[in-house]
Design brief:
It is a single chain. This protein has 184 residues and is of the alpha+beta class. It is 67% helix and 10% strand. The chain has a 4-stranded antiparallel beta sheet. Strand 1 and strand 2 form a beta hairpin. The radius of gyration is 21 Å and the shape is elongated.
């Protein structure tokens, strides 16, 4: 014997998916715009996608480095550019997710739903790759205790993107099952 799903279960699941999308967008905006992409921001160290400041013992202050000084320190120009592309590209693609979701829900169109799933797959891959590349190139100046709220926001956004991806992949099957149960 199967337990029938409540009539509004697909709608509640859809609202949950939109809420998760809004949370991911909020976390990405916080980390990349509000915190300016800085993953470590302390009085003696500021490392981010656009700032690379290390403590200088001689002057007793933060010394910010640009390319080609960063290449002398062992930070690849291409690697940092790819890291930036990854994390900021994930933000842009995630901003596009709500529209196909809403259109798919209103039009009952599977293609639009798959477009949103595709955006989520690429955004999740870009965010993980960009964050990973940045950490690989800057790990000699970082430790886990130095990573700040920007890193926590990006990590949480990555986890929520994976959860969102799983929910959007399962949602069409849940909606089909609910509609079949309504016709019984």
């Amino acid at each position: 014997m199967t337990v029938p799903m409540p009539k509004r279960a697909p709608l509640l699941l859809f609202v949950g998916i939109l809420t998760l999308t809004a949370a991911v967008i909020g976390l990405l905006l916080y980390a990349l715009l509000w915190k300016a992409g800085n993953l470590a921001d302390s009085p003696n160290l500021r490392l981010g996608f656009y700032s690379f400041c290390l403590w200088d013992e001689g002057t007793g202050s933060l010394q910010c480095h640009q390319f080609p000084e960063l290449e002398d320190l062992g930070v690849s120009r291409v690697g940092l550019a790819l890291a930036r592309l990854g994390v900021y590209g994930a933000l842009v693609l995630t901003l596009f997710v709500p529209l196909p979701l809403l259109l798919a829900q209103c039009n009952s169109n599977e293609g639009e739903w798959q477009l949103a799933v595709g955006f989520l797959v690429v955004a999740s891959t870009l965010l993980a790759g960009g964050l990973g590349l940045f950490l690989i190139y800057t790990w000699k100046w970082l430790s886990l205790s130095l990573l700040g709220s920007g890193f926590i926001a990006l990590s949480t956004a990555q986890a929520l993107l994976i959860l969102l991806l799983m929910a959007t992949a399962v949602f069409p099957q849940m909606a089909e099952r609910a509609s079949k149960l309504e016709h019984c």
